[in-house]
Amino acid sequence: MLPEQLPxxxxxxxxxxxDKFSNEFSSDKSSxxxxxxxxxxxxxxxxxxxxxxxxxxxxxxxxxxxxxEAAIINGTVETGCISSKEMVKYPLYMEVRAKISNSPxxxxxxxxxxxxxxxxxxxxxxxxxxxxxxxxxxHLSHHVFIRSPFQDYQPTGAETWYxxxxxxxxxxxxxxxxxxxxxxxxxxxxxxxxxxxxTPENQIDPENYTNSTGLNKPMYLIxxxxxxxxxxxNGIDYLTDPGVTNPERTRNYFDYIRVFKPE
Length: 263
Hints:
Layout: E1 15-17, H1 32-35, E2 38-39, E3 52-54, E4 59-62, E5 65-68, E6 71-73, E7 76-79, E8 81-84, E9 92-99, E10 106-113, E11 118-125, E12 138-147, E13 150-153, E14 161-162, E15 175-183, E16 186-191, E17 194-198, E18 219-226, H2 242-245, E19 252-262
Parallel strand pairs: 3-7
Antiparallel strand pairs: 1-19, 2-8, 4-5, 5-19, 6-7, 8-18, 9-15, 9-19, 10-11, 10-18, 11-12, 12-13, 12-14, 15-16, 16-17
């Protein structure tokens, strides 16, 4: 069911399910349902940030779900990542139904341009229940980059860390996480069918890294889990943390990814 708050498309158009960019995870990774439109890796072969190593053996499709389970191997954190084979462009609504892992690893649902200069983060979450701050917040944000010399703009206000006011711990149950990429400067986030954040236009690209075009490039869809280095500076040791050394706590579950476009 689509959120009621989605914009109504122009006359004669309706929100249509996009088979090429959606997956119900009803067949395993060797099936045509998966291999036709998805790859069991990052789209350009990148192995992941910092200690992360995206590894196909750490992901599986079972009982109608995509599941990531991390493992510490030779000083790295092996975990899963899938990405679309083709790129999608606005306007679109993308939604996943997921259960975030009970770990300090980042559960991420995002989009990235082929040249890695524009990124939309539908979801970035850290579900470790022992961390009262992160376990109750979802990071809903985006990036624009200049690759050389490297510069990265991302809105950093407290409003980008969504808490629902009901002390929900996001890793304790399944939730629906959606993003509406309605235009280059129109980005809206949804949780369980409700709009919870709309990025102000003046926060899309205030440094003018996109030459005023905003988020206008086609992007790949990515579902991943990662050991992000910035959290190590906050005292996380991924190689000894019980949220990573216990495989059960690292499991991310994705029930589906669904993309809709007005057609």
